[in-house]
Structure formats: structure tokens, C-alpha cells
Amino acid sequence: MTVTTLVSAKSCGVTTSALAMALSSTRPSLLAECDPAGGTLRAGFFQAQITAGTGLYHLAVAERAGEDALAQAFASHLVGLDASGHRQVLPGLTDPAQAPALARTWPALAQVMRVLSDEGGYDVIIDAGRLALEAGHLHPTLTPAPLLQGADLVLLVVRATDQSLTLARHMTEPLRSELTDRGTGANALGVLLIEDGPRRAHEVSDALGLPVMVALPWEPETAAYLAGTGRAPRKLNKSPLLSSARTALGHLQAAASRRALHQQYPPALPAPTPHQIAGVLQRLGQGRVETRG
Given 77, 132, 173, 289, which residue has the most CB atoms within 10 angstroms? Predict the structure, then answer.
């Protein structure tokens, strides 16, 4: 399936959009909350039902013990979004101070995401949070660059306002350079537009010089529920936000497939070993993940 990484220039709905996509997927899905500034799902959507003993930070320790330990830890730190376990979340950091410990873990984690997509048939959505720059390039610690480099698509999340576009405009060139030099190519980059504001999709595309690959409606009721600040709408599965997110995943899969057909990818990441593939998928197929509730 597809590995899609979502980023932003400023907090503007990345996590809510990523969660909407994971919940609406018609295939097995994984949302990995990988924002170095810290995750919000634990305190928000999950209403503090998940302790700090579960989540991304623990993979840093496991990765140092080898591939098998990482595969086992990865599966054991997932949390289910539904009773079947087909939709899962890797909760993020509880403290931004934990981010430096993950510097050497990001490449291995990017490989795991690739395995889940290519071999496991998962829709993988990565919440990489707010971008941080250093000397015009992605910050080596405060941005999980390998998760952008290894993705099929990287979406810059913006709102339809002049303020959001002004902030995002400064991120487009560093992202293009990163994906050209170390990723799957600059044409992996696009925009996820949250239709909260007066600007239309074509105006956003012109302003940023990027295609709008996804447009999600501004629906405060469902957004509040996903953020953990409101109740679930009566007909959640039929909400415009989730319906649009479901359609968007189909469009993203088609876009990724077109890129695969027309472009020979550079080897941005080492190919996962058969042992690693078997380890990750076997452990995901064994034990049940914890579910919300």
C-alpha cells in the first residue's frame, strides 16, 4: 500500500488529519505519531488511557538490541483503534527531551514502515509534526528526516488562510531539496489542504508551487472528537471529514502507484532483510493489541 508522511510549518491539524485517515481506511492501517516535539493522541483522543509505558520512545532502546528486538517492541507498543485491531496507532513521545534518543532509530523505523506497506498491505500514515530547520535544511534532531525520505508521499498540511500559506512557503524548498537529495524525489511532495479559510485549492497550489493532493473539509464537531475535546458525532462513519479522508487515501494510493510506474526510485533506504520482514509481520499477526476503551 502507501507510506504517507504528514508535516506542517506550524501546528495546524496534522494529527487530526492523520487520525482521520487511519480511522477511515478500508484496509489495515497504522498511524505512527512521530513528532519529535511530543505526541498529543495520548492525552487527547485516548483521554490519558495509555500510560507512558507504551509508545515510540521505547523503540529506541529496542533498536539497540537488534532487528528482532525492534520487531517485537514495535508490535507490543501498538494500540488498537478498533476491536479487530486492523487500525492501530503507535503513540508518540511524552516529552520532547526524548527526541535525541531516537536519532539513530528513525532509519530502522522507516524500514519497518516500508515492510508494513509493501509486505503487509497497510496504509501507513506518519505524523511527523512541525518541521524544524537549521541553516535552510531539515534539523537533524528535531525532524525525523528518514521518515520523510522513505515515504511514498510527503504532504505539507496547511489551512486555507494567508497566514498558514505564508508560514508554509518557507518550508517548500527545504522539503524539495531533502526529497531530491535523499528521498524518493521532489514529486513525492504535495499539499494536504484543510478547508478552513477563504483560499481555494488552486490558489494554495499557486502560492506554494505544489499540487494539492488532498483536501479535507473543516468539520469542527468531528475534529473536536478526534482531538479529544468533544463527543463523537452521532454518525461518525458518515461524517464529511472521514468520508473525505477515505476518498483521499484512494487518491494517494493511485498517485503513489503512478510514481512507481514512471519513476525509478533511488535506493533511499537499505532493503529490509527477509528476517526483519518476517519478524515484524509475524509479531503483528500474533498477540492482540490494546484497544481504546
Answer: 77
